[in-house]
Design brief:
By secondary structure, the chain is an alpha+beta fold. The protein is 20% helix and 29% strand. Strands 1-2-3-5-4 form a 5-stranded mixed barrel. The relative contact order is 0.16.
Length: 127
């Protein structure tokens, strides 16, 4: 039985602008197949502008199963089946709470008010 993360050989059965439909066996050595979609962004390590330049119908390709959805649809990736593929971790999001931000803001506001007060006193003493 196929599982997410498996790398298996499939056959390209149909090409569309947005991706390739690829038949993969439902189990190792099985003749039964299921058709999965390999989105155009998952075809190659480089940007793919024209999928027809990379794949042809009937071509055998190595694919990684990246998701099996509840409705039975299978998402595939040729790019992730490539041994040179390295998953780039997402950079940390900026929405994390900066624990020192409030402390630094209060310190800045305090020093700013002191500078403004000193400037106000000097201006009033010159009158």
């Amino acid at each position: 039985m196929i599982q997410q993360g498996d790398i298996i050989e499939g056959t390209v059965v149909r090409l569309e602008e947005y991706g390739a439909f690829i038949d993969i066996p439902v189990a190792e050595g099985s003749d039964r197949t299921v058709t999965g979609l390999c989105h155009v962004s998952e075809v190659d390590l480089n940007f793919v502008d024209n999928i027809y330049a990379y794949l042809t119908e009937g071509e055998k390709v190595e694919v990684r199963i990246i998701a099996i959805k509840d409705d039975g649809k299978v998402d595939l990736s040729i790019r992730q089946a490539d041994p040179e593929f390295e998953d780039i971790p997402e950079p940390p999001r900026r929405n994390r709470l900066d624990r020192d931000f409030d402390k630094r803001l209060r310190r800045f506001m305090h020093s700013s008010q002191m500078i403004q007060g000193e400037a106000r006193r000097q201006r009033e003493s010159k009158r």
